[in-house]
C-alpha cells in the first residue's frame, strides 16, 4: 500500500474517533442565508462593555466596564478580537472596515433584518473607535495587557487582570492603526449614510481628523518603545505602515468623493510602496484590497493615472485561477487556499471577498481580466470564491463545517474563554485566573456555543483536530468573520452564480 493511502486511512480513522458519526462526504447544498445570519450573530459573542437588553447571545454578560479609567476616559465597548479578553485596536479597525465594506457592496442583497443586524455590529465597533480618537493628537490603540491576559483562562465577565490602556501621543507615530481607523470610520460612514446621516457625518469628520494624525506623524505604532511590549508579538505591524496610509486615503476618497485623496494616492503611491504588488490582504497588509478598491475608480474611467493599481488587481486575480498560467496560490489537496502561519481561514475569507467585489466591478463595466492564456470574467471569479465558501461550510475532506453552529458537525472545543467556561448565568460564582484551567484542559465540548464563529481552520493537509489548545486552528477571530458577512450575503442571494 502506498504511503499516501496509508496516511489517508489514518486520517479517516482519526476523524471518526474525534467526530463520531461524521459524514466524510461533500454536501451538495448550503443554506447561505442561515450562515449569513450566524456570521453576524457571532459578533454579539465578542462584545465588550454594557450589553443591551436585546443581546441575543444570552450566555454573555457585561464586561470591561472600567476600561479607560487610568486615562480618566471612557473606553468601554468594542470587541475582543478572538478567544481572549483584550481589545486590540489594529485588528478591530480592520474588522470594522470589512464589515462596512460588506454592507456597502452587498447590503442591498441582505434581508432587511440582517442588514440591520450588520449595521448594529458595525456600530458596536464604530462607537468604540470614536472614543479611541476623541482626544486631539492621541489615539488609544489597545485596552488590556495581553501577556497577563493570556496567562489566565477566565470569562470576560470575571476579568481581574490589568486593563492597561495603550495610547500613542503625537509626535509619536501610529500611522497603521490611525489610518486603518480612518478607513473604518470612512467606510462605516457610507454604510450609515442612508439610515442615519447625522451619525455618518460624525464618522466621516473623525475619519478625516485621524487620517491627518496618521499622515503627519508617519511610522509604525509597534515601533514605540512605550507600547511595544503590549502590542507585540500579537499585532505588531509586520508589513509596514505605508499600505494603511494609501488604504485610508482610498476609503476617504470613496466616502467623501474629495479629489484631494485621489491626488494623495497618485502623489504618494511610489513612496508608500504601491508598486510592490504584494498579494496579501488582512489586518496587517492591505495591498491586495487597496488595489481592488482603487480599481473601481479606474474601471469607471475616473483616474487612468491609477492604472497600475488595476494592473496589480488583475495580476492578483490571475494568481487565484488554477488554470491560469500565472496561478501560484497554494491550495490544500481539498481545495482550500492555504498560506502558512496559522489562522488560515482569514486568507480564505478575505480573498473570497475580494474575488466577489472585483467580479462586481468587472460586471458593471463589462470587462474581463487578461490572464495570458485565458480571459477571466466575473463568473470565473465568483466560482473561485464559491469553492472557498463551500469548503468552509462543509465541502471538505473532514466533512466539517468550520463555522460553529452551522450544520450538525462543527468544532466543539474552540479556543475561546467565554465559550469554554460556564456562563455567569449557570455559574454565577467568580472563576479566578487560574481556576479556569480545568475547563481549558477538559476534553468536554464547550458549554456555550459561539454561534457563527469561524475558527482558524485546517492545516495544509486538510486535517483539523478538535483541540482547544491548538489555537492556530481552533481560535475564531473577528477579522475571519467580517469579510465572510459580505461573501455570504452574495451567495444567499445568488446561490448559483454566473
TrEMBL record:
InterPro entries the UniProt entry points to: 6-hairpin_glycosidase_sf (IPR008928), 6hp_glycosidase-like_sf (IPR012341), Glyco_hydro_9 (IPR001701), Glyco_hydro_9_Asp/Glu_AS (IPR033126), Glyco_hydro_9_His_AS (IPR018221)
Class of enzymatic activity (EC top level): hydrolase
Domain Glycoside hydrolase family: residue ranges: 32-488
This enzyme's EC code(s): 3.2.1.4
GO molecular-function terms, A-Z: cellulase activity
Keywords, alphabetical: Carbohydrate metabolism, Cellulose degradation, Glycosidase, Hydrolase, Polysaccharide degradation, Signal
Superkingdom per UniProt: Eukaryota
Keyword Hydrolase among record annotations: yes
N-terminal signal peptide: 1-27
Gene Ontology annotations of biological process type: cellulose catabolic process
Pfam families documented for this protein: Glyco_hydro_9 (PF00759)
Family according to the record: Belongs to the glycosyl hydrolase 9 (cellulase E) family.
Protein name per Swiss-Prot or TrEMBL: Endoglucanase
Species this chain originates from: Herrania umbratica
Lineage: Eukaryota, Viridiplantae, Streptophyta, Embryophyta, Tracheophyta
Gene: LOC110417463
